Amino acid sequence: MVAAVRAGQSLRSVAREFQVSLPTVQRWVARAGTARLDRVAWADRAPIPHTRHRTAPAVEEHVLALRRTLRDESPLGEYGAAAIRQAWRRQWGARPALRTIGRILQRRGVLDGRRRVRTPPPPVGWYLPAVAQGAAELDSFDTIEDLVIEGGIPVEVLTGVSLHGGLVAAWPEAAVTTDVVLAALEAHWRAWGRPAYAQFDNDTRFQGPHQFQDAIGRVTRLCLSLDIVPVFAPVQEHGFQAAIEAFNGRWQAKVWHRFHHEARTALQARSARYVAAHRRRTAARQDGAPGRRPFPAAWQFDPRDPVRGRLVFLRRTTATGAAVLLGRTFAVDPHWVHRLVRCEVDLNAAMLRFYALRRREPTSQPLLREVSYTLPATRGPRVTSR
Length: 386
What we know:
Number of helices: 13
Largest sheet: 10 strands, mixed
CATH architecture of the largest domain: 2-Layer Sandwich
Radius of gyration: 36 Å
Distance between the termini: 96 Å
CATH class of the largest domain: Alpha Beta
């Protein structure tokens, strides 16, 4: 290209001949200048500046000396880049830029700041080993309250979701009572099978009355009669109810706030369509979830039948290392204070066991204490320490 230009061709004609842009021809002609073509450096040049500026070593030593002095003698105890910059200005007037001081400190390895170490979250259902390992399914249930349709029509919604399969359910009613919960759970488990665990919060509609010691509610008795372990999680603890709370938010966004509902029946119809669509979308996830057991054909619920099986209470210990459940206070461990525990009430073995829970070490759940416990029929239980 340069030889053609020097032979008398125009820059544009050379660009058309070699099928390059005009600036390309201009750049190479300027690169060659008037030198012989065999003496021109045609190699590409690295896109870096020809000169690099670095702070003088003496300036770096002054910065480090100021940092040591401020660290030992500063009344405020501040010796970062901003404090060094101010001290430099007081002593010598002219000063390096704040970013330059920061680069010096970083290059010399004297920064005290530490990056936050983010630990991975525990697996879903980590507080129940069988659920965390994917060997058992857990259905979580909750309520949405204080909804009112225009005209003063009250609405409460019982919601449910399975932890592994994402199987959702929603029952909008005038009020969610214990009878509503019993009927909904029975119908749901008849249609989809029984999980290994059913999780609730400490609402009296689920757990039973709180004012009596050793009280077992009808929902708990329903679960135990179907060989389902009821799990009661405290509302104020973060994470245990995350799955059902997330579904509650989605249901309100996609059903309640999305449409104007004329009556409760219209809301129920829209909710049923949403739940059916959600189940279709998560069908593959449900297929890969732990198996659900078939519902017993000859089963009938009688809340007066003796209870057998296990109950699980998730609790945080008190300042003395005790746990409160079933209307009683049980001493757990004086060294395990304000910490999470899983309390398992084994009705078959007449035993109450307390396991330590750590989110950072979800697989380590050592047994803290065992207490002999017999659920009474009409009188108080016999409690002895072991």
